[in-house]
Records
---
Amino acid sequence: MDKISAEKRIAELSELLEEHNYKYYVLDNPDISDYDFDMLMNELKQLESDFPELILPSSPTQRVGGMALNTFEKVQHTVQMASLQDVFDFEQVQNFLDKCGNELVSPEYTIEPKIDGLSVSLEYTDGILTRASTRGDGFTGEDVTANIKTIRSVPLKLKNAPEFLEVRGEVYMPKSSFLELTEQQELKGEQAFRNPRNAAAGSLRQKDPKVTAARKLDIFIFNIQQCRGRDFSKHSETLDYLKELGFRTVSYIVCHTYEEIESEINSIGTQRTGLAYDIDGAVVKVNSLKQRDIMGSTSKTPKWAVAYKYPPEEKQTRLIDIEVNVGRTGAITPVAVFEPIILAGTSVSRAVLHNQDFINEKDIRIGDIVTVRKAGDIIPEVLNSVSHGENSETFKLPEVCPVCGTRCVREDDESVLRCPNVECPAQLLKNMIHFASKNAMDIDGLGDANMKLLVDSGLVKSPADLYTLHKDQLTSLERFAEKSAENLIKAIQDSKGRGLDRLIYALGIRNVGQRGAVLLCEKFHDMESLLRAEKENISDIEGFGDIMAESVVRSLREPHRIELINRLREYGVNMTYDKKSTNDERFKGKTFVLTGTLPTMKRDDAKKLIESFGGKVSGSVSKKTDYVVAGEEAGSKLVKAQTLGVAVISEADLMELVK
């Protein structure tokens, strides 16, 4: 095909694919099969490969592409992305309406669901998406254009668009995507996100757009920030116009009286449990744009709108049992099993009780009446014990592992009880998944399902067994055809060349995350040197303390781990480190706040890590805070961060930022 014909066909395919994207992701009404869509996409990819000079920024192929970012550039918002004033009862709603009635003539209002996500700005020049940014502090955000493009319901090109358009929307993670993600995190022994909003925030700020794409985010557009070449008189008109342009917009209804508004707020509250996404309130806005100008704004919030926040739903039920599960690191986790109740629209009968200290603090016993709610309307949690059952007894976690019978241990500095038996069947699968994971040995094609198949078949009983696999063994399993077996064998062989820091992280040494593995390698450049190192040598490393040093020494001298390392060396796995430059100030000018208990790091170690990259760690959250790193039992700092719109990330997200 010649260049002129290719350019014409690329334009046709791009328009056709975006139309099908719109029908599938916005209208939820596809009219072609996934296979047909993929065939069109493959044709476009081939043409763009043949004629790379014809690739446009708005091409459907560019939704996930480009290089991963080291930093996110600052964006100054021309129009402030203000937050809303929250109200928590109908008396406060009435007070708001009274103020509007005193200043305005016959005001009308729009009522919209308040999507619980991360606020962003999208800018279009001549109909092309040119920039997307986070809200930040309302005045300054961060450029996340590459990651926003991975959201399929975001149009990359608008038809009949104005000269310039800036819209505001809310990026969120659907409930189904959130549950899928947290199940994967728990299976891999990672700290799971606490709620969909935090998951959306962490996912949107991934340096690699491919990671963001895998998180299956979505967006609702709810406002026009700027529009050149088109005038509007009402907010409802802007939403209708945005819908015509192809945006996925929030639903709304126009009301005039308090009674209508109260009824609609209650109606949205009733519907929210059945929605595929989280909402945490209903927004009441003056509809007339001129009347909004009359009402004005404070430095933080508009006076013409309020957000009614729904209280979390709580119910009482009887605790039937406390089950005990064993995780990847041997952690013994108690799980409450209670009589099923309906919370946030779904039946709930289980909730994690964390550890013995949590059970003791709440005095939770089998047979109790307990109060349960869903954190973020998703994750069930037991709040307290209302009353003890007759003849109830204080619950104690078992002294021996419920799976292998090994006596459990609890370190002096931990609240977690553990099974120390590394050959415990409950730990094997999760350890294997961790070893092959992206941030460890990164064995492509060896996801959770395939790893479970290998373990269940008995082909692998140790990470070293992966390097003994051959094609015939794999093709004997139902999930592997000849080509997929060859690809996996190649991926396993390729993993032998990973850096020593990846291998150390893959070994699953307690308290040693990705950054800790790098720090070890920067002092001990090969495995032999590390194996000979004493506690005192390791504790001298900046970012390490006595506890981490002791954990490294003890772990690397355990017979099973020595045997594993020797086998990996025998099979040709890399045992040396290619030292990289450490003159990295990627966090320069950034302020972090640490809150809650992090899964693998002490707060002091996290502080040293952030400071080693030029960042600052503060003890309080403010508008100037860039990130709040939240762990288990995060308290008021997390709430304040969410109120101010500060990015909330997990320890895993922090480690992604320093990769």
Note: The radius of gyration is 27 Å.
---
Amino acid sequence: MSKQKQYDAQNIQVLEGLEPVRKRPGMYIGGTGSEGLHHLIKEIADNCVDEAIAGYATELRITLLDDGGIRVSDNGRGIPVDKMEKTGKSALETVLTVLHAGGKFGGGGYKVSSGLHGVGSSVVNALSTKLTAEIQKDGYIYTQEYEQGKPLTEIKKGSKTTGTGTTITFYPDPTIFKETIDIDYEWVVDYLRHQSYLTKGLRTYVHDQRTDEKYAFYFEGGIQSYVKHLNFGKDTVDEDVFYIEKDVEDCQVEIALQYTDAYTESIKPFANNVLTPDGGTHLTGFRSALTRVINDYARKNGLLKEKEENLTGEDCREGLTAIVLVKLPDPQFEGQTKNKLGNPEIRGYVEQVMTEYLSYYLEEHPAIAKKVVNKAILSARARAAARAARDNVIRKGALDSTSLPGKLADCSSKDPSNSELYIVEGDSAGGSAKSGRDSKTQAILPLRGKVLNVERARLDKLFANNEIKSLITAIGIGIGEQIDIERLRYNRIIIMTDADVDGSHISTLLMTFFFRYMKPILDGGHLYLAKPPLFLIKAGKKKEYAYSDEERDKILEDLVKDKVAKGTKVDKEADISKQAGAEVSRYKGLGEMDADQLWDTTMNPENRVLIKVSIEDAEKADAIFTKLMGTEVELRKNFIQARAKFANTEELDI
């Protein structure tokens, strides 16, 4: 037995100051990739937003400098620069160099704040090669410079000024952010747009010096404007947005909602401007009050008969777009990620406000109230019609093959982690895929024709569609509110369609289905698009596949270079295929490939190209599906016209 390595006090490492941040940055910003990089901007800018929420700032500016730096400034009170007794340093230096130091732990700095742990500014400082703080306060400009979190100078008192505010300029450290230090302008634009929606009266500006692009936002209506933005392109029950803002105890409840003709809901809950995607007590209070108020109104006005069951929450929320924003002094988020709010008192506050004001609104607007209730009743009837079909469609056991659709060629493996399902366009391609697959791990489900556009269909219509029913049954997780991702039968679900316009349309229809009714598939990273080759290039006994026009041209150019290198003369006047001595065939569809070709090019894990389908921005995804698959023809027309110049005419079926 080898001698045990000595382990004593000498082995214990003490990290001082900001050393822990540089040692383990992922603990503080989630990672050192692009997401962590952009999180630095958010940490500084959120402090500016807190000044605006508190009523001291009206502007937030972000400048992407042409030398790689980022400048964030506001016109708030300015970080204090006087010395603190406890630390012996200025308040500015303490905020920028000490973890868990700031104005968000009581003491009257902020009543409400999106920052929770007080580590933001100091973490950004630690992960920057250089940071400069410029404070306008008490009639003077104060500056201090830092390097990797350590002050290079004392605070310098500079020229006089009549303004107030804080400006932080920092340069992310490339030794920390090895993947990239290139800031995405669109990310900054989206961040500022949301902050302007969530903070009434806040003007936000971005200037990208690298390209000289500029953008500014100001929304007088706040979250009312946000709801209108989310509903752009959708038919709404009423032009006006229901809105209420009310102080309860030491908290503020702000709600905006509007119904559309859609069959899904879009509710965004926020606490102190922080999105809580997993909801929490504020969302629970909102949903409870909404369901109760709509049922009470429906009963009171005879829209629901005595023998009819109450409308469910799901029925009452069909087509609803809502923003629920609460502001509170001590938010209790569940976990470091702040995905869920846990304050129990907030549920009661939101219920109280919603019940009182929505009841009053429905009484004062009977025509709108009737439309809302009737929409919920239609949803309830569709739900009842779908219930029996759902029981037959959703598999009882996750791996019980006896109830699987007959057209599914299942894999022999019962281990979901190494199993994958190919959703194939048409029986012809399905036949080739079944013959060429690895039957141990690859299952094939051929679909006939174009699947239902679920953007325009309720759940009961899905169960009446054979192709959708086969899909639901094969995947095994259920649908709608009964989804259980643990029952997923395949770790990868791969959409494999022809590389033409029809194939793209079918892929879009399928992605719409997954986004609207099986979103956990996307959230878990289980959905992929197969990328079949466009061209087969034969030159003598040599055979190569090309997945794009550019790749085809590159292969042909390389063949010509090989011929020239070997001393073979080529006719430079001839087209490149003849120069290369190659025959180029374009595949019109997967059905043209035999089983071996399909395996070699599109299904063999060692050779194939898969595109992972993920949701970087659910809001944008919702907007694009509404635009492409919704009822508004004009939006689609404009989308096509704007992108027509990018279309490859060789790929169009004219």
Note: The radius of gyration is 30 Å.
---
Amino acid sequence: MKEFFKMVFASMVGIILASVVLFIFGMFIIAGIVAAAKGDKTEVSANSILHVSLKNALVERSSKSPFDNFEMSNSRTTGLYDLLLAVNRAKTDDNIKGIYLDLTTIQGGMASIEEVRNALLDFKKSKKFILAYSEVYPQSAYYLASVADKIYINPEGILEFKGFSSQSVFFKGALQKLEIEPQIIKVGTYKSAVEPFILDKMSDANRQQVTSFLGSMYDHFLNRISESRKIPKDSLVAIANSLKVQNATDAVTYKLADGLRYKDQVLYEIKSRLGIKKTDDIKSVPLDEYIKNNEAPKGDINNRIAVVYAVGEINGGEGDDETIGSERISRTLRKARTDNKVKAVVFRINSPGGSALASDVIWREVVLTQKVKPVIVSMGDVAASGGYYIACAADSIFAEPNTITGSIGVFGIIPNMQKFFNNKLGVTFDGVKTAEHADLGSINRPLTASERLVIQNEVNRIYSTFTKRVSDGRKKPQTYIDEIGQGRVWSGSEALQKGLVDRLGHFNDAIASAAKMAKLKDYKLVFYPEQKSPFESILSTSNDKLKDYFSKAQLGDSYVYYKQLQLALKSTGIQARMPYNITLN
């Protein structure tokens, strides 16, 4: 027995020592990952070009997670503000002689692409060249490439120029077959987020609003390309309507591209512009590497402008860098409000909305902050429904022409799955309750008429509150807000006409406006909420990253629908949410 305990004790000691060694070894590995991901500053040689390839997802803020910086990661991202800083720096960097746009796909919304496009237009003021090349130009990539001095396409390549389209998926037939009844309570003629569950095609009102905002975005798209390519807008409309660009040669014939080139020929032209021999190597700096040279904003630390990011779905709780948690954002706004060194706030919003309650919690902090210092909203790709709710109290609102905004409406969905459980699964329910409506919200029975009325009254109340918030913030009659509200979605250009935004402008325009309102000439930008450190990111999100990695690998393009379904299942309470997830290819 004594020998037995000695062996057990020795084994325990061995396990403990092995665990300690493995832990220390693991920490060294993690430290190596963090160090490798962070990297040193990139040396830029004289007579170099900046190689811009937007294959990474274009997001509001660069991730601090080391896993996102590996080449093998399918979740690599590029922060929009970091990209804009890099392009602006390249404009005055004597070592950078031009930009090579290497475009195939762009994972980003149209307002973000607009920001990048305008940064490239500003870069051209330096008289440095921009060349664009791709084997395939989707419309979003072509829109960005249209600023280039020369656009080249592979002789066997493809350039899409066919106009915009919008499609919705309807589940009414599937729900009927499953005997699931979606019980809808909503306010707003145009609040079409519920339509997929109760209709088999678009309502007339929904068709009207989609036609309007999609047409507005398309009109802007055509106007900007017309300006850059010196092609009459009417000609562009005719090219798209008749599908005249069917191959690469057609793209050159109709002046959408400047020539047919293989990549080696494009590289030879770059060498010629750099004044080097064909046998010499091009000194090229990838955008991701050049971004590493971005320096922290300088300025008077006693005069700060706080940039507060609100990105993703709006929910109660903490949230994270990809979702808006009412607790986290409210705490951040309070911090900016009570910090005497912060003289103004730029509230950067990129959100389709979410919980009406969480939106109101954040709205309150915006109101309190606006009373003591300027608050300027800068809208990203989308700031609609709850995303507009949290914006409406600001002193001034900036949007891009192709920002999606508005959607001032409220809805709730409670599925009645009684027949599905009974008839499809053979599952029944029984129970005890102490009050008649104690089980209100249960999905195993239908709502009673009185319960539906109670919920409808609450939805009506929240909608009235929403429109009153907008009315007070925009200083317009509530009846007018109700008229342009009703859940209707607007483009940024349309929102400007309706008075929902004050100016069409970029992120930096909003920062400049905040500085002007605060009467600041020398100031320092500070960014909130604080992101998790690389170590925290590894420890807290590695499991989620692995799940996302394998989900993306298995689902491919369908991953976005999986994420939408996930978010829908997590949603609780009455929602102020935009009905669309809009992408342009």
Note: DSSP finds 21 helices and 23 strands in the chain.
